[in-house]
Amino acid sequence: MGLVCRLLEERGIATTYVATGRDLTALVKPPRALFVNHPMGNNFGRPGDVKMQADILRTALGLVHSVEEGGALVDYPSDWGEPFEFRPGGNRVEAVSAG
Questions:
Q1: pLDDT for 18-59, tens place per residue?
Q2: Within a domain: residue 63?
Q3: Three-state SS across the chain?
Q4: How many degrees, rounded to 5, is the angle at CA 47 between CA 91 and CA 52?
Q5: Partners of 35 in the beta sheet?
Q6: 99 domain residue, yes or no
Q7: Residue 87, domain member (yes or no)
Q8: What is the CB neighbour count within 10 angstroms for residue 14?
Q9: Residue of 6, 27, 62, 72 with fewest CB within 10 Å of its CB?
Q10: Is 27 within a domain?
Q11: Percent of the chain residues topping a pLDDT of 90
C-alpha cells in the first residue's frame, strides 16, 4: 500500500498510510504513515471501539497538514492491551494424506 500512496501523491492526491507493520513501512517509505501497534487487520482498533477508531482516523488525516518531509513515520500512542504475535500459518489446519 505504501507504493500505491507514492503513486497517488505523484498525481497530486494527498495520502496517509495507517500501518501495523513498522519495519516494512519504514522500507517502503510512503509519503506519510501512521504506525499503529495493533495486530494485523486491526489498524483502527478493536471492532466497536468507535472512540479509538475516530481518534486514529483524525490523527492519520492530521498528518496531511503536519508532516513537512516525505517518508515520515509517526507512532500512534496506543496499547492493544494484551500480547499478540504474527504466526504465519499458525492457525491453519494441515491436510493429512491417507495414502
A1: 999 999 999 999 999 999 999 999 999 999 999 999 999 999
A2: yes
A3: CHHHHHHHHHCCCCCCEEECCHHHHHHHCCCEEEECCCCCCCCCCCCCCHHHHHHHHHHHHHHHHHCCCCCEEEECCCCCCCCCCCCCCCCCCCCCCCC
A4: 125
A5: 19, 75
A6: no
A7: no
A8: 14
A9: 27
A10: yes
A11: 69
